Every structure is written in C-alpha cells, then in structure tokens.
Fold:
Amino acid sequence: MDTEKRREPPTPLMRDEKIIEQPVDQQTLTRRYTEESIAFIRRNKDKPFFLYLAQTFPHVPLYASDDFRGKSARGLYGDVVEELDWSVGQVLQALRDETLAERTLVVFTSDNGPWLIKNEQGGSAGQLRDGKGTTWEGGMRVPGIVWWPGRVKAGMTSHNFASQLDLLPTFVTLAGAWPAKDLLLDGDDISQMLLEDKPLPHRAFFYYAGTRLNAVRKGPWKIHFTTGSPLEKKPAQTHRTPLLFHLKRDPSERWDVAKDNPAVVADLVGEAERHRQTVVPIKLQLEEWAEAPAPVVAPLQPE
Amino acid sequence: MDTEKRREPPTPLMRDEKIIEQPVDQQTLTRRYTEESIAFIRRNKDKPFFLYLAQTFPHVPLYASDDFRGKSARGLYGDVVEELDWSVGQVLQALRDETLAERTLVVFTSDNGPWLIKNEQGGSAGQLRDGKGTTWEGGMRVPGIVWWPGRVKAGMTSHNFASQLDLLPTFVTLAGAWPAKDLLLDGDDISQMLLEDKPLPHRAFFYYAGTRLNAVRKGPWKIHFTTGSPLEKKPAQTHRTPLLFHLKRDPSERWDVAKDNPAVVADLVGEAERHRQTVVPIKLQLEEWAEAPAPVVAPLQPE
Structure:
C-alpha cells in the first residue's frame, strides 16, 4: 500500500469542472459517492431521473474506509468489495425510503474482468479464461444484475447474453420513447428479456480489442480470429485458422473445436464480414488529442 | 469414439476371480454395477454391510448407455455424468425402499481431479489450479458428499478439510468399534464433523506425488516444496524457497505469499519434518511385481 501510495499522482476530486480536493483522500470515495447519489435521488424524486454511479474501486490502487479496512477474509480487495456492497444497499434503501423502488430500474455491472497482473489486488474471473485487456471471457464477461421490484422477477437468472450496448435502447424504450431514427446503435432493447424472461433473438456479439475485431459470439459459439492483449508485451496473435469454442460446454475456452465444426466457422466468419461492412471508421479521440497542439501542463492546485 | 475403441485392449469383466465377459460391452457398465449394488443391498438388508461401488466412469474411455448417450448439453462426458447421477439415485432409492436409509451412511467421492489432457473427455476443476497427477488443488480436491437421513443434516456445507484417509476410522467408529491399537492410521474419525458440524481439530494434510512429499496444508495455508506432475514429461520442480498459498483468499493458487509469511512457512516446514519422522518406507507393490519372475501372459478367453 505505502509503496503504491508514494507513486500515485496527486489525484483531484472534481465536481463538474471544478477541483474540490487535491490530492483526494481516496479512502472516502466510496462513502462520498454513495452519499452524493442518495442526495441526488432525494433532490430528483419528483421527476424522472438518470443516475450513473461509477465507483472508483475495485480499480487499483485500492482504498477502503476505516469501517471496512481489515474486515474481510480476502484482504484489501475483499474489504473494498464489502464496502461497495454496503454502498449498493444504501442506494437501494434510499429508493425504498422515497417509495421509488417500484418505479426505478437499477442495473449493476462492471466495465471488464479482473486485472490479473495486480495479483491479490486484482479480482478473479473464476473458471473463465484470462482477464482484463483480452477478448477471452475472463476479460469480457461482467456481472449483470438488474433490480426493479414488481417488474423484474427476483432471483431469476437468464442465460441470454447481453451487453452494456443494450442499455441505451432499453432505457429509452422503458421510458416510453424511442431512439432517434438516424442513430446507428450496436445494442438492442432487451426490456422483454428483463421483464418477461423472453429469449433474445439470435444475434451476434463482436469482441473488439481497440479497433481490431478479435472475436464473434453467436449462441453458444465463439470464434477467435485474434488473441492476445494490448496490455501484454508480446504482440497479438492472428490465427490462420480461427479458433472456435462452445461456451456452454467449455466456458473456460480450453478446447478449440473449429476443425469439427466447419459450418459454424463459416457462419461466424460471415457474421464478421457483414458486421465489418456496417462499421464506419472514426478517428480515435486519443489520436485527435495527440495531433492537437501540446497542452500547457500547469501544476494543479487545490482550491 | 471409434478411434479410441479400436485401440482398446480386450477388457475383461470379472466377478471375483472369474472373467464373465470379454471384451466387456462398456456401455452397459454403469447400469450393471448399479443393478449389482441394489441386489447386494437387498441380499444383505438384514445385517450390517459395506458396499464399495467404484464406477468405471468418468474415467476415459467414456461410455454411456443408449438411454443417456447424446442427451446432455456437455457431450459424452455430460452423458456419462448424468448416467452416474441416475445410478446414485437408484442406489439411494433402494435404501429407502428397504427402509435402510436412516441406518446407512452413504459417501460419494472421487479419487482425483480431472485428467486435463483428455480435453472434452476429461472434466473440469473449475477455478482450481491444474488437474489429475499434480498436487495443485485441481488435482487433489474431489467432491465429498455425505447422506444419512436423520443423522447428517441435509444441505449442510462444511469448510473443514477431510480426506478419504478419514473414512476407515470414521466408519469403524460409527459401527461402534475401534481400529486395532497397533494400526498406524493417517486419517482421523470425522464423525462429529459429519453428524454435529463440529470443527475438526487443526491438523495438517500431506500431499504426495508417489513417494515424494510435495506439499502440506494446515488451515487455509498450503506450502508447496515441489510442483509438477508425474504425468508430465518435464521433471518436477523443487523450489529452493517453498511456495506458500492462502487457499481461502486464493483458491486458484495464483499468489505465492511465502515472503510475507515467514512464520507460517516455518510452521509448515516443521509439520513436514515431524511427519517425515513418522513415515516408514515400504516397498512399492509395483516394484515387488517388477522384481518377481515375469508372468506368462496367455491370451485371455471369454467363458
């Protein structure tokens, strides 16, 4: 912890465009985000609202408040997860207290799998292969937990696959509106799956590593054209014969069964081709930034 | 399947010392072992009995009967497991039918983890590291399911560790007897854990690879002196500094924490030393066999 702390930049905490603390005391973040969220809910309880609560942790460097540090059986990572669990409970309780629970859809999810090189301070993908930065399932599969008392059946588990690309069209639909006609969306409205446990139509999911299409999934089948990770020092490996995995039989992606399933391979290659034709390349935001005049970096001062 | 079949030796099925079918039709084995077991229970229902039902599968080569082949979502391996599940159900039902359930302790377990090189025809150790032939948890941890209506609480889970070495002293104790005084046993009577969920006394478990002590576990801690597998072509690796894992925080044995826990390392090294002093080397049965005059191998004939 201490070594990590010394190397950290003086991270600012901002409200909108304004720095309100620098360096921020990171042990307070989970609690403060939670309090801010509850205050936001109370302020907006009489009108429709959208709250995006993006917790800092369990990204490294990890911090837990005094109430949680040293309490779990899984070291600091476990302490952090227990504080996040507390936070979720507080937010749900605020919704109940304001009698908003039956009118609010809550989604709990994450942006990627565990950062394995961080060892004990990273997470675990269980039996899924590899982790963050890869297009193996351990890097791509995340929790997807949905809560809406009276609308989403408690304890239900769905084996359909969905992604965060589906959230915008789903939220818009549930709000009684529809996305603008000229907006090309990669996701679908999955509200019928959430509310009525209806199976999703067969559709393909495209696994990108940056701008490279690494893999495609359809039903239980996943084809991998390229494997490797942008976080690894060795270059990604593009397979002359793509790898094929049956994720239902083989969730750990251990057994390439491409040779035995040529028709499946052909179908997924076709999906990739059709998909590529719909993609309009854009300039990466970071490239735009790199080409802009170098910004003058002034030391940041706390207010 | 067919390739595998052609390579198989003409496996005999024996009753006691007598060959009753050769080559045996392996698709029938799970069903026939089950029927034999039920007949044995019925024949012996009026006196104490011990039934050891050692199924052939899911060892490779895999076979399932017509009723199960092609039925599961996990290919032949899944079919085999579903037939074994059926078999267990039949045996338990026979005990119920004979009103023996409340007087019979049933233990379901296995001899090792999955044989990973068999790919889809092997099993999976989930998030545990490696498999059969190694002293990583994926090779050593097996199911331990105990059934005794009215005596063992249904649905209870214990996080104590126990092993098949404990079965003999436990069975003897539950039968109201005690092991012979001059018998040096490596296991303990665990009946109080099974019947009353009492924690076991702190004790060490010793992980052998053949005659070599590879690892020692005590509580959540496991020390690995040597890693590798007799099934692998590369030689086992003995670590100058032993590896230490905390199996509760790190069930996948990913993070060696020996450096941070010198007192734990010293304690486990001491356990290994004390254990070694109690072990009396014996000649391996296979060595005795190898030194005996070569047997005359006559082709086996079915009756």
In short: The interface with chain B takes residues 73-75, 78, 116, 119-120, 124, 126-127, 248-250, 252, 254-255, 257 of chain A (CB under 8 Å). Residues 228 and 236 of chain A are 4 Å apart (CA to CA).
